[in-house]
Design a protein that fits this description.
The complex is a heterodimer of chains A (314) and B (492). Chain A is mainly alpha-helical and 314 residues long. Chain A is built from 14 helices and no strands. In chain A, helix 7 crosses helix 8, helix 11 packs across helix 12 and helix 12 runs antiparallel to helix 13. The termini of chain A are close together. In chain B, 45% of the residues are buried. Among the domains of chain B are: 117 residues, Alpha-Beta Complex (Dipeptide-binding Protein, domain 1), CATH 3.90.76; 205 residues, Dipeptide-binding Protein, Domain 3 (Dipeptide-binding Protein, domain 3, Roll). In chain B, the strands form six sheets. In chain B, strands 11, 12, 13, 16 and 17 form a five-stranded antiparallel sheet that branches. Chain B has a four-stranded mixed sheet with strand order 1-10-9-8, with helices on one face. A four-stranded antiparallel sheet of chain B has the order 4-5-7-6, covered by helices on one side. Chain B is of the alpha+beta class. Classes of the chains: A mainly alpha (314), B alpha+beta (492).
């Protein structure tokens, strides 16, 4: 087990290191100048030069990378070129909201997908199954952006039940939760469509197994069979997809954040790329990479929990 | 019917009766672009000015709705006959938001800071002509210029000339401190920025708003939803003319259309063959049909221009008829110049007005026998490739700075690639002419010169659309520079 963890940790560090080099190289190759982004087109050459000096852009590339990576090791991600505050401060402000949204989105996705998937499997070849398949097809086809606008038009503009967007922070928990409802629903409706189908096919696969027939023969109720015997055995492919979805969810919040004007990491990274704000882009990409790797790590651990047979093979 | 006190129902109820009603003197304003810092003297984003200029920060002069210059922190001024010496009389009893007194030393500090060698002021050049600034007494500032400048008083009203205090200037990027009628209260990055009324301001009794909250909503559809849901009271620079109709039809709102100093041009790289040939440029002007472009790209809501000057300006002369839309003539001219059937690229920045206009221009050039290709490029790319490296044939962009006809006197190094000593001489005269009547006559000459040279395709003036709830009064429909003084605004 320790060997397992050690191997994964080294892999984690190696991945982040590789990502840092790729991002640094990409941002430096991209045409565009952070100084001009900040000072605008009318700025004089000496003002631009002064700013470039200030931002440390005149040092050679490898020196700048070295300084940055050594800082990153101790948690100092430098100062944002555009915001002029420490990058960790910028990320800290927005991390809470993005993570809340991602977690809430994932939970709602799981609830919707697992129930609909199992339901569809239990009603295989009947109208319940076809209904879920049709809805999930819609969910996959519909763009999240468009769905979000529809939700806003109905619940915020027409019914006035919920705010159309924005997020004022967790100081007022009720307002914060109200702000997150529509974005969470929009995220979950799209994500759960994929997961529902995976759940359904995995459940069907398990239902064909001999032990299911045995369970049925021993007189257990349909509900007990589905939830206590089918689902636990169907979890491995589901958990795999959930791991991938969580990573995609965090990095893909940008569309949702734009429509609901939420102060999240997605909007921050988009703005920072546009502004050529290298320190911020670097830190954010590393953060996303870390989240993806961690999500996969947790999935691997969960496999062992779900399927004891895998433990023996470790 | 029994009242169901099931906890789930109660909590759902609580969630839907969420927000408390805001007081009638609190205004909520939607803005498209959030700035990354709050110091207008070190960053060029227009929305810093839009939120904070003349609200939190003030300048010596103020640029009024019609573009004229009025008193502000300077209650009056005298200019010597040769236009070289300015004596400003400052307002008495003014304090900064941190309580420190405002006086001539602060003006000197602000100007020196802007002019310093390592200054990162985006408009440093407006101070370039100053040779000395002195304060004979705490309420008088004397400025000497090396030559007469027509636009000096105007420039001193721009956001880059904001008066700041030495004690707080370094922190203005995150906590702005100025002398204005509103104080900075709070900034949740990515979400909102709040200002509150400054009760100690010299004009506090005309200010009716108690607080102003700016919400950053960049997506036009989201902004529409936010206004319709009455989350925000005003969106003074609405980017999507196609969405205005529903507001015009809704009795709760009023829509304003005003003008700006923005000339939208089809910029042509005058240094790159075949565009150095004036006949090719004139042919391009004949090929384009401004009305079609305005209808298609701006839904009919813009004013055509025939030269590089805004229609509402004092010296405006209508030159839209000089190169009347004539596809047949354009085709002939392209053939005579030997470029018929050739390929020309239009590299366009990611602004809706530019992208839409480009598609129409492409079609119009195609009708005249030119194979025009449209390339949509990212803003950073545009700045680097088109603006700095002049790697382009044509592009579409709006120049929003006021008094910027001088762009054509910047020489072939500027991205226009245009150089004409006669025009450069003309601009020098305009720039240093103190008599407005003479200056206006010269500006008219300038417009005719540029149109005659067909330097670019001059398309239309960028309009300003604002959407406001009916109770909101006092917003200027037209904004000459990027700010809107909120001391004039009331709600209800």
């Amino acid at each position: 087990m320790t060997y397992f963890i050690l191997r994964r940790t080294l892999g984690f560090i190696g991945t982040l290191f590789a990502v840092s080099i790729v991002v640094f190289a990409t941002m430096n190759i991209l045409p565009g100048d952070p100084a001009m982004s900040i000072l605008g087109l009318e700025a004089t050459e000496d003002a631009l030069a002064a700013l470039r000096e200030d931002l440390g852009l005149n040092a050679p590339v490898h020196i700048r990378y070295f300084e940055w990576i050594t800082g990153a090791f101790v948690g100092d991600f430098g100062t944002s070129h555009s915001f002029r505050v420490p990058v960790s401060e910028l990320i800290g402000e927005r991390l809470g909201m993005t993570i809340s949204l991602a977690v809430a989105g994932m939970l709602l996705t799981l609830v919707l997908a697992l129930s609909l998937g199992i339901f569809a499997a239990s009603k295989h070849r009947q109208i319940g199954d076809w209904g879920v398949m049709f809805l999930s097809q819609l969910g996959i086809a519909v763009p999240a952006f468009w769905l979000s606008i529809l939700l806003v038009l109905l619940f915020a503009v027409k019914l006035r039940w919920l705010p159309p967007g924005g997020f004022a922070g967790w100081d007022d928990p009720v307002a914060a939760m109200r702000s997150l409802i529509l974005p969470t629903v929009a995220l979950a409706l799209v994500q759960s469509s994929v997961l529902a189908r995976v759940t359904r096919s995995s459940a069907l696969e398990v239902m064909r197994q001999d032990f299911t027939r045995t369970a049925r023969a021993s007189g257990l109720s349909q509900r007990r069979i589905l939830w206590r015997h089918v689902l636990p055995n169907a979890l491995v492919p589901i958990v795999t997809i959930v791991g991938m979805q969580f990573a995609a969810l965090v990095t893909g919040t940008i569309v949702i954040e734009n429509v609901f004007y939420l102060p999240g990491l997605g909007r921050l990274i988009f703005q920072s790329i546009s502004n050529r704000d290298l320190p911020t882009v670097q830190a954010l990409v590393m953060l996303f990479a870390a989240i993806v790797v961690t999500a996969n790590f947790i999935v691997d651990l969960l496999y062992v929990v779900i399927d004891p047979r895998l433990k023996a093979r470790q | 019917m029994t009242l169901n006190l099931n906890p789930l129902h109660v909590s759902l109820l609580a969630l839907t009766i969420g927000a408390t009603a805001a007081s009638a003197a609190d205004l909520s304003v939607g803005l498209q672009q959030e700035p990354t810092t709050l110091d207008p003297t070190s960053e060029a984003t227009a929305s810093i000015d839009g939120m904070l200029m003349q609200n939190v920060y003030e300048t010596l002069t103020i640029i009024q709705q019609d573009g004229s210059v009025g008193p502000n922190l300077a209650t009056g001024w005298e200019v010597s006959d040769d236009g070289l010496n300015y004596t400003f009389t400052l307002a008495e009893g003014v304090t900064f938001h941190d309580g420190t007194t405002f006086d001539a030393d602060d003006v000197i500090f602000s100007f020196n800071r802007a002019m310093a060698e390592d200054s990162k002021n985006p408009a440093k050049k407006i101070f370039a002509g100053i040779t000395s600034i002195t304060a004979p007494d705490p309420l008088t500032v004397e400025v000497t210029l090396k030559e007469s400048e027509a636009f000096f008083l105007f420039n001193m009203g721009k956001g880059d000339a904001a008066i700041v205090a030495p004690e707080t200037a370094d922190n203005n990027a995150t906590t702005p401190v100025g002398t204005g009628p509103f104080k900075f209260d709070n900034w949740n990055r990515g979400d909102r920025l709040t200002l509150v009324k400054n009760p100690d301001h010299r004009e506090a009794d005309i200010v009716s708003l108690d607080s102003v909250t700016f919400r950053f909503v960049s997506d036009a559809a989201a902004a529409t939803a936010a206004m319709m849901a009455e989350e925000i009271d005003a969106y003074p620079a609405f980017p999507a003319p196609e969405l205005l109709e529903q507001f015009e039809a809704d009795p709760r709102f009023k829509v304003t259309q005003g003008n700006t100093q923005g000339e939208v041009i089809l910029a042509i790289n005058n240094a790159k063959p075949p565009f150095d040939n004036i006949e090719v440029r004139r042919a391009i002007s004949h090929a384009i049909n401004r009305d079609e472009i305005i209808d298609g790209a701006m839904y009919g809501k813009a004013t055509p221009i025939g030269s590089f000057y805004p229609p509402q300006g004092e010296a405006y002369v209508d030159l839209t008829g000089t190169y009347a839309n004539d596809t047949a003539k354009a085709t002939e001219m392209f053939e005579a110049a030997g470029v018929a059937g050739s390929t020309m690229t239009l590299r366009v920045p990611p602004f809706p007005y530019a992208m839409r206009s480009a598609e129409i221009v492409q079609a119009q050039l195609a009708e005249a026998g030119i194979d025009a290709k449209v390339e949509n490029v990212e803003w950073g790319f545009w700045i680097d490739e088109i603006y700095r490296k002049k790697n382009y044939d044509m592009t579409i962009i709006a120049h929003v700075e006021p008094n910027d006809m001088g762009n054509f006197a910047r020489g072939a190094d500027y991205y226009y690639g245009y150089e004409n000593p006669d025009f450069t001489a003309l601009w020098e005269k305009i720039r240093t002419e103190a008599d407005p009547e003479v200056r206006n006559a010269l500006l008219k000459e300038g417009q005719e010169f540029l149109t005659n040279e067909a330097v670019h395709g001059f398309l239309y003036q960028l309009p300003l659309h604002g959407i406001f709830r009916n109770e909101v009064e006092g917003y200027w429909p037209s904004v000459p520079v990027s700010y809107m003084p909120l001391k004039f605004v009331s709600k209800g």
